[in-house]
Amino acid sequence: MFDYSFHWRAAFKALPDMLAGAWVTFETAALSMVFGVLIALLLTLMRQGKNPALRGFAATWISIARNTPSLFQIYILYFGLGAFGLHVSSWIALLAGITFNNAGYLAENFRGGLKAVPDTQLRAARSLGMSAPQAYRLIVIPQLLRVVFYPLTNQMVWAVLMTSMGVIVGLNDDLTGVTQDYNVKTFRTFEFFALAAALYYLIAKAIVAVARLLAWRLFRY
Amino acid sequence: MFSTSLTWNDLQFLLQGAWVTILLTLASIAIGTLMGVVCGLLRALLPRATLPLAWLLDVFRSVPLLIQFVLFNAFKSIAGLNISAFSVACVVLGIYAAAFCTEIVRSGVLSVPLNLRRASRSLGLSYTQDLRYIVLPMATRVAFPGWLNLVLSVMKDTALVMWIGIVELLRASQTIVTRIQEPLLVLCIAGLIYYVMSLVVARLGARLESRWQEND
Fold first, then answer.
1. Higher model confidence: residue A169 or residue B214?
2. A1 within a domain of the structure (yes/no)
3. Measured between alpha carbons, how far apart are the two ends of chain B, in Å?
4. Is the pLDDT at B213 greater than 80, yes or no?
5. Which of A187, B57, B176, B201 gives the lowest tally of CB atoms within 10 Å of its CB?
6. Confidence of residue A1 (pLDDT cuts 50, 70, 90)
């Protein structure tokens, strides 16, 4: 049945390059998470506000991000922006696409998290003499963070997995891109991609482990 | 400004792609749900013995789907299996869906209070009767929203099968873009089709969910 000899040595020789690619992958995912959280907070605020235009904007963003494939979102940023004469690099398109996607999903998580923080907490903080920003910063956000911490970790893992789509729009220095480069040169598809899969698995597990440690340290009380 | 070289045939081509997307989703969800229900029940009822199963399924959730497609496709050629790219996509997506479905089913089964099951057993129901008449109906209601989310996410993930050469909605739009060079318009139409498809599924699911809740 197996008329094929595996050549793992070639794959292991490429390991240093792939590790460098893994770092790019991780960086991209982390950046997209940072921007994603910021935008998601903004979107949540917009949704809470009274201005109908801002509410509509936030609702549109969230529903598009959640109802279309993330690959489509990357595509439209990469190819679609070209129609306006904006030619972005594939890395920027990937980062923007994942950030867009993250922000949409996280905004929904934050909404759930805000619901979990009782209204009375905010009122109590205000009646203790805190200003609204103070009450949000010192009372609401820390409690919110506890509720959304697990979804945040999950989203971070998702972001790492999503960066693998960069190769479809021609990115060649992240983990999948490097793997694909070697694959094209050597045609040892199975070996290289198996190694990449192992690396992705390790990254995902490392993120979950670090998040557990952090949660243990942060939410001790 | 509003002239376009998009023809009626192109639109039909896109719709054909959408049909492939729907078929893929249905097939992989069917595989995933079947496997997921079995594995989920096993995970919930025998948590210790099936721990290795959990580790195995965890791998499918922690490796990008794109890489799973490529790996399985390469494996197919290595093992000399003579199956189409479409079946490869179905199998990979099916296992991927099963990995998530297992967790959904497991949490659904575990959400049924143990006291309730003890009560049913002391009323004289056998173990299988208890599973069939008490646990199953209650777990289904808890698991259904999660399962619906899974259907939606699998439908979106089918976009990735273009990498192994299946012409689904996104690949079809790409083909048209290459010909008529109007990426924004064509991609917007493709996006609209995706959006409508997920909206329909979500609405149907919400209606079903509310109908179930009437009897509670």
1. A169
2. no
3. 56
4. no
5. A187
6. low
Which structural domain, as residue segments, surrounds residue A169?
Answer: 13-218
Question: Which tens digit of pLDDT belongs to each residue from B162-174?
Answer: 888 888 899 899 8
Residue of B nearest to A205 (CA): B62
∠ Cα B61 B63 B68 (to 5°):
105
CB B74 to CB A190 under 8 A?
yes
For residues B160 and B72, what is the distance between their CA atoms, to the nearest angstrom?
A: 14
What distance lies between CA A128 and its chain's CA centroid?
A: 37
Does residue A7 lie in a domain region?
no
pTM, 2 dp: 0.89
Amino acid at A197: A
Tens digits of residue pLDDT in A50-64: 889 999 999 999 999
Among A88, A183, A201, A208, which would you mutate to test the B interface (most chain B Cβ atoms within 10 Å of its Cβ)? A201
Residue A4 lies in a domain: no
Residue with tokens 């220095």: A173
Q: Which two tokens stand for residue A46?
A: 């917009």
Provide the domain count of chain A.
1
User: Is A159 among the domain residues?
Assistant: yes
In this structure, what CATH number is given to the domain that contains residue A188?
1.10.3720.10
Q: Distance (Å) from the C-alpha of residue A130 to the closest C-alpha of chain B?
A: 40
